[in-house]
Amino acid sequence: MESLAVWAGRWNATNARARMAIGAAALLAILAAAGYGIVLHPARGPLFSSPLYPGQLAEVEEQLAAWNVAFTPIDRNVVVADGRRSTLLLRLALAGLPHAHVADSTEALAGIGVLTPQSVVDAQTRVGLAGDIERALRGMRGVRDARVIIAPARRASFADESAAPATASVRIRSIDGMQIDADEARGIRRFVAASVPELQPQRVTLLDDRGNAFDALAEAGSAGGARLERMLQGALDRAFGAGSTIVRVVDERDPSRRTIATLTRAPYGGGALNESTTSESYRKGGLGYDRSSARRERGLAQRRVRESVPAGALRRRDVAVLVDARRVADLGAIRTLVRAAAGIDTHRGDRLVVEALPFTRARHRSRDGWWLAYGAIVPLLPSVLGIVALLFALRALRAPMRWAARIALRALRRRPGAREIGGYAPMQLRGALRDEPPHAAAAMMSALPASTVAAVLELYPPEERAAILRNMARTRSPLVPSADEFF
How far apart are CA 249 and CA 230, in angstroms? Predict the structure, then answer.
């Protein structure tokens, strides 16, 4: 407060010309700052032509923040620079944002009343349940968008009708370059089945973004190939650095089911199946010759085994590894590692290809001194041009401004009311100033001769006379008037 009083006293002690100069300088500074902000501040506008839903707005704001894009959130929209609007809309469209709005259970059942038919209530319940499932599936890894259609269970109303179980169809739109393996497909089926009453996981049809169903064979093939591909890519990235290798795995599966029958024969006991013996003997005393033979057969045991091979058995595996020639030189180590990790079997027909190629990279342009100078000067050009234009305008208006300043100073120096008050009697002046406050009466009397002022002051009471004299004694107007002057 003391410093404020000191500054107020200094301001009150300053003459009128200095006050005018300071005020003019402050006004010019404000105008220059406003012009600088208007010239340099880019034009801004809403990003989307139509308002967004709260969920869509949250997705867009999160993505813009991840891209480090300056934006201002407003009611159901965001404001960005007009020059970047087309680029941001294109990037958001490529990223699949914002998702199409789907009504959840709260929104779908908001218009349900007491008199709403039960069929409408059931339909809106299915719509809200499908929306809840779609929003949940959008948060899974590799899923960009999802669409769910639920067909509830239908009970038989008549004897000639048959009941229909609950079914569901799920269309998954995956992110580019990512695949859904068998475990994830089974998880999606179980999640949808657990969300819908009386729905079994095997009655959930799962489609990809091209309309292909995730059947058992496709799931088995994609599961083995995708899992092995991720494992090999992660191992090579850890060993040689991210981006130095590209791994692709293709598994060829047997689409047919086969049954293999095996017949095994074995004798009972440990001997041979057939056994024959022959013996011969001679008599010494006379001429004689004896020969005997015997044959014995054992029992036979047979065993028939039937083995069923399901569809999807691995028939052949092909693995291709592309190596950046600028970063990795030891192809033998990569070939050995991949052969052991992928289980390459040459007798089965597996193939392993490892090739070194120069990867394409974006070229970084060198930033020389001229480019840096250009980047530093161009943002300042609007301000420099504005200042130059202001100086030329001030130079052109120098004579009119000088004339206006002279007129203003002459008006300030002129005492107001001298012509109106001069020539009147003191009693008339006292009557004219009867209802005026002390500071106003002092301002009027300051233009009168001293003798007239003394004659008029003699007609005032002592208290009012003292107040008028105090106001007439001030050479400068105060920054803040007193309370009696204010009221």
Answer: 9
The predicted-structure confidence for 350-398, as pLDDT tens digits, reads as follows 888 888 888 776 555 555 556 556 656 666 777 777 787 787 777 777 7
Closest CA to 232 of 349, 328, 339: 339
Q: And the tokens for 328? A: 């990795």
Largest CA distance in the chain: 202
Burial group, residue 259, by CB count within 10 angstroms (0-12, 13-18, 19+) = exposed
How far apart, in whole angstroms, are the C-alpha atoms of residue 22 and residue 61? 46
How do residues 50-77 score in pLDDT, each as one tens digit?
Answer: 888 888 888 888 888 888 888 888 888 8
Query: Do residues 221 and 317 touch, judged by C-beta distance below 8 A?
Result: no
The two tokens of residue 243 are 């981006």
Average pLDDT over residues 216-230: 59
Could you say which DSSP state residue 14 is in?
Answer: S
Q: How many CA atoms lie within 13 A of 300 on its CB side?
A: 8
| pLDDT classification of 200: cutoffs 50, 70, 90 | confident
φ/ψ of residue 220, rounded to 5: -65, -45
State the sign of the Cα–Cα–Cα–Cα dihedral 67, 68, 70, 72. Answer: positive
Sign of the alpha-carbon torsion through 113, 114, 120, 124? positive
Name, of 20-29, 88-97, 466-475, 477-486, the range with top average pLDDT. 88-97
Q: Which residues pair with 151 in a beta bridge?
A: 167
Tokens of 238: 């850890």
* 344, 347, 348, 351 alpha-carbon torsion, rounded to 10°: 50
Residue 168 phi/psi, 5° resolution?
Answer: -150, 145
What is the CA angle 482-486-487, rounded to 5? Answer: 120
The secondary structure of 282-326 as a DSSP string is E-SSSS-EEEEEEEEE--EEEEEEEEEEPTTEEEEEEEEEEEETT
User: Rounded to the nearest 10 degrees, how much is the dihedral formed by the CA atoms of 398, 400, 402, 404?
Assistant: -150
Element (DSSP H or E) covering residue 79: strand 77-81
Do 361 and 328 meet the contact criterion of CB atoms below 8 Å apart?
no
> Which residues have a Cβ under 8 Å from the Cβ of 421 and sit 6 or more positions away?
429, 444, 447, 448
